[in-house]
């Protein structure tokens, strides 16, 4: 029987430099798309998936994020404060490990979100998770179901779901900013600045990085001019999912 992760970390500590001048006054996770902050899009997805506790790491203008999440009822929010030093994606996770428990947990990027079509994608991710053969399971999006993505693809998917780097191959898929990961992967890792990408490569080398294509529409918001595109995509995706 699959046990859904009950904890998550939302990576919300970035500087949001490409979102200036908006982020001169607010942190990027509090930028609103269709009336809802980027951070709340992710936290609402976690709540809908039954996640009980979410760690939110903060660095830039942290007091605004702390004040914002104080009003939330679910999931329960724990702040991981990186005000003194930005730890990058993996360093931030390592710092938060004591709050994330011994079992697999969700990771979400705070600047991407999605509109589910059919069963919840985070629920589908939990059903696809197999701790016996996986260290990381990524949610993946096709280029055609993405708004705001300016780069190429990230991974090629084998028939069994195993991943390898696509190096931009158009047949590949995009990492959609949501994953399940087992904490054993971070054993003896330092709470120093370093990237989650190194762990993707480590898992690929061990044959333990897998992916699941999402259903619905995926949205990433990197610059101010991406906001109206994202809002249009939300409106269209919500109509299409009815």
Can you describe this structure?
With 242 residues, this protein is of the alpha/beta class. Helix content is 26%, strand content 26%. It has helices at residues 38-48, 62-69, 88-100, 121-128, 197-205, 226-240, and strands at 7-11, 32-33, 36-37, 53-58, 76-81, 105-109, 112-116, 136-141, 146-147, 155-157, 163-165, 174-181, 209-213, 216-220. The strands form 4 sheets. It has a 7-stranded mixed beta sheet, with helices on both faces. A 3-stranded mixed beta sheet has the order 7-14-9. A two-stranded antiparallel sheet has the order 2-3. It starts with 6 loop residues before the first strand and ends with a helix. 46% of the residues are buried. The mean pLDDT is 92.
Summed up, the helix count is 6
Distance from N terminus to C terminus (CA atoms, Å) equals: 31 Å
Mean of all residue-level pLDDT scores: 92
Main beta sheet strand tally, sense and closure: 7 strands, mixed
- In what order do the strands lie side by side in the largest sheet? 5-4-1-6-12-8-13
Which series of helices and strands comes N to C? EEEHEHEHEEHEEEEEHEEH
DSSP strand content: 25-35%
Overall SS class: alpha/beta
**Shape verdict:** globular
Q: Got a strand count?
A: 14
- Share in helix: 25-40%
Low-confidence stretches: none
* Radius of gyration, whole Å: 17 Å
Organism: Mesorhizobium australicum
Protein name: Nucleotidyltransferase family protein
């Amino acid at each position: 029987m699959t046990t859904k992760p009950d904890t998550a970390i939302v990576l919300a500590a970035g500087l949001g430099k490409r979102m200036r001048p908006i982020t001169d006054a607010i942190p990027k996770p509090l930028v609103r798309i269709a009336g809802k902050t980027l951070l709340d899009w992710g936290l609402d997805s976690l709540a809908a998936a039954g996640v009980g506790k979410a760690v939110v790491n903060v660095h830039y203008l942290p007091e605004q994020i702390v004040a914002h999440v104080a009003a939330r009822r679910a999931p329960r929010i724990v702040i991981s404060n990186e005000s003194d030093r930005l730890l990058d994606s993996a360093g931030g996770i390592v710092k938060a490990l004591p709050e994330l428990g011994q079992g697999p947990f969700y990771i979400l990027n705070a600047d991407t979100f999605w509109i589910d079509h059919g069963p919840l994608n985070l629920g589908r991710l939990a059903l696809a998770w197999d701790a016996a053969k996986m260290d990381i399971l990524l949610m993946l999006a096709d280029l055609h179901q993405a708004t705001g993505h300016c780069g190429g693809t990230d991974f090629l998917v084998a028939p069994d779901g195993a991943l390898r780097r696509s190096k931009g191959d158009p047949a590949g898929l995009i990492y959609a900013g949501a994953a399940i990961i087992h904490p054993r992967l971070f054993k003896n890792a330092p709470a120093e600045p370093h990237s989650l990408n190194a762990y993707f490569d480590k898992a690929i080398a061990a044959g333990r990085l897998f992916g699941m294509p999402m259903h619905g529409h995926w949205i990433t918001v990197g610059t101010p001019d991406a906001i109206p595109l994202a809002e249009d995509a939300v409106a269209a995706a919500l109509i299409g999912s009815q």
